[in-house]
Amino acid sequence: MARLFKRIRFDVCIECVLNIAFDTLINPLSLAGVSILSDIITVDDLVEVYADGTKAVQGISFRVGEGEFFGFLGPNGAGKSTTIKVLTTLLRKTSGRVTVAGYDLDKDPQEIRKLIGAESQETVVDGDLTGRENLKLQGNLQQMRGAALEERVNELLKLVELEDVADKRAAFYSGGMKKRLDLASALVHKPKLLFLDEPTTGLDPQSRARIWEYLEGLNRDEGITVFLTTQYMEEADRLCRQLYIIDQGKVIANGSPEELKRQVGADTITLSVVGGEKDGVKAEAKQTLSGIRGVTKVMDSDGGITAYATNASQIVADIVRAFDEKNMQLSSINLARPSLGDIFLQHTGKRIRPEELNTKPASGMRFARRRPARE
Ligand SMILES: Nc1ncnc2c1ncn2[C@@H]1O[C@H](COP(=O)(O)OP(=O)(O)OP(=O)(O)O)[C@@H](O)[C@H]1O
Ligand SMILES: [Mg+2]
């Protein structure tokens, strides 16, 4: 008995020592009052193949830290919605390992659903109900009732600035108002993790900026972890601290927006030449550019030709002179600092231009209630 007691004490002590060691040595940030983020989402080798054989997600792996503002940036068909549907338990994955808030996606989908809020790509508010009724209905679906629900609904109507129209039928809301109501619906049960699938696509710049402010506030003031997908470079750049750029079901780059921009490591010079639509002229123009000191890479781009250079502003004169010497006439030349779009272009040879994509405006509304997720 005495030996057993000794053994227990020893185990406890070892644990204490390890904890102290971790806090003081391995985790020095905790001494400074900063806690290290643990992973709220872990995804390893996720694959989703639809019944018709479409390989929508092809072996994606990533981690999302608690309190993070995390984003997937990619064009149409990249696999963004498919990934969100899997993570929010709406779609069964083909293979891979996923945990959300410490729960295994296959074993504990019910537990996961209690902790998450999700806004799908298409606005899902009931046009026959008022904004307030929509939120109450959502609360009821989350087993919320009475004064607590009433209070929460008022709080959310205030947050998304819909107090004045709270008792008007949602069918008569503008596109931006519907999106805001949809966001509020996802927040009714105070989720610790929020999934947003293109929350601002189709909105005017003002409505978009407003949603960005709410989202920043939720993340900063309430500590809600946000997983967002977007086709907007500007949105990803402004909101996300960790960003995965995906295309055709695969990750093509990841890091903070700043890290990703640094990876480009160069300014861009986009130029077009008179007659550049002819292959011969374009090839000669590219060759001319490649020969200029300071140019690190030359590529075709939608606007003509894009060159990367570490010191773009200093070599413009050289470029103009070189083209002049070859009797080629420049019709335009633009310089830009590295952007997330350049990373996409570098990896795929394509530009993401959501304004040209066939995205549904947010005013399109499905008259459907948000259904509870599948069992
Ligand atoms: N139910 C389905 N059955 C078959 N293929 C599907 C299905 N849903 C999506 N896909 C396909 O899977 C791929 C990824 O689609 P997904 O909706 O995940 O892309 P996305 O990145 O969300 O695109 P968008 O920006 O247009 O919303 C596309 O090729 C799409 O056509
Ligand atoms: Mg989508």
Q: What would you give as the CATH superfamily of the largest domain?
A: P-loop containing nucleotide triphosphate hydrolases
CATH architecture of the largest domain: 3-Layer(aba) Sandwich
Integer tally of domains: 3
| Separation of the first and last Cα atoms | 49 Å
Strand order of the largest sheet: 6-7-8-3-9-10
CATH class of the largest domain: Alpha Beta
**Based on DSSP secondary structure assignment, what is the total number of beta strands?**
14
Described by strand count, sense and barrel closure, the largest sheet is: 6 strands, mixed
Rg, rounded, reads 26 Å
Number of helices: 13
Low-confidence region ranges: 1-36, 356-375
Strand/helix succession: HHEEEHEEHEHHHEHEHEEHEHEEHEH
At CATH level 3, the topology of the largest domain is Rossmann fold
What fraction, in percent, of the residue positions are helical? 40-55%
Strand residue percentage: 15-25%
The class by helix and strand makeup works out as alpha/beta
The average pLDDT is 83
Which ligands accompany this protein?
A: adenosine-5'-triphosphate, magnesium ion
Shape from CA axes? elongated
